[in-house]
Amino acid sequence: MNNFKEQINLENLPSHVAIIMDGNGRWAKKQGKLRLFGHNNGVSSVRAVTEASAELGLKYLTLYAFSTENWNRPQDEVNGLMKLLIQTIEAETPTLNKNNVRLLSIGDSSRMPEDVNKRLQACIKTTENNTGLTLILALSYSSRWEITKATQDIANDIAQGIIKKEEITEELISNYMCTKNIPDPELLIRTSGEYRISNFLLWQIAYSELYFTDVLWPDFQKEDLYKAIVNYQSRERRFGKTSEQINK
Ligand code: FPP
């Protein structure tokens, strides 16, 4: 792989990149190892991609680390992933601070184990004043859960007279999502050769550019992110308009 970084136009960076990290299990299986071995190695890709995003000057990076549906995996794997999350957040907090990275999370925290929530909240608090990259971990997250919750919250606020039903706009709905105040991702990446969205940021990716790569997540390194950004920059984003309207 070669020098995609040099081809990046720093004037036209996406402000928000979202990634569906996939393929840890297959990566491990190819080597005759347990799935958790793949997740453990996936952490180094998380580190590489976070570092590369901060260095480039991206403002937001969202990583799909654990979906609502992932609760249905074998208990051993779920427990291993939770342990890995605690260890990683604890080990990486000083590095996040050093690199001016702010941590946030989105998802149903009520389903997360208490020790994970505690560690996560501690890291969010410690990094809250950092002004560089915002790293958003989607944990126990799914879009349908988020949209259902937003709908319930809107209905409750109407019932209590906090808002009127005539005030419902796209903007208001966005403000009831977990991603309130976060711009929609311009670029969504999925690794491991799967062409699915898997219940991730359905509201927010209405106009995102989608990028799929066969690279398995533990093999995904800085150059792979640069390559995705170069590819993104080669596209014409029309938002429903014609090419002529965009280029006039
Ligand atoms: C998908 O691979 C990956 C996950 C469900 C978990 C992602 C977790 C990490 C990369 C490690 C921890 C993350 C952080 C943020 C510290 P898969 O298991 O679905 O792979 P497969 O499709 O090959 O089975």
Can you walk me through this structure?
The protein is globular. The protein is an alpha/beta fold. The longest helix has 24 residues, at 75-98. α2 (24-30) crosses α3, α3 (35-56) runs parallel beside α4 and α4 packs parallel to α5 (114-126). It has one domain (12-142, 184-233): Undecaprenyl pyrophosphate synthetase, CATH 3.40.1180.10. The mean pLDDT is 97. It has nine helices and six strands; from the N terminus they run αβααβαβαβααββαα. Bound molecules: farnesyl diphosphate. Farnesyl diphosphate binds at residues 21-26, 35, 39, 42-43, 46, 63, 65, 70, 84-85, 88, 137, 192, 217. Farnesyl diphosphate is lined by residues 21-26, 35, 39, 42-43, 46, 63, 65, 70, 84-85, 88, 137, 192, 217.
Short description:
This protein is of the alpha/beta class. The protein is built from nine helices and six strands.
Supply database-style keywords.
alpha/beta, 9 helices, globular, six-stranded parallel beta sheet, Undecaprenyl pyrophosphate synthetase, binds farnesyl diphosphate, 248 residues
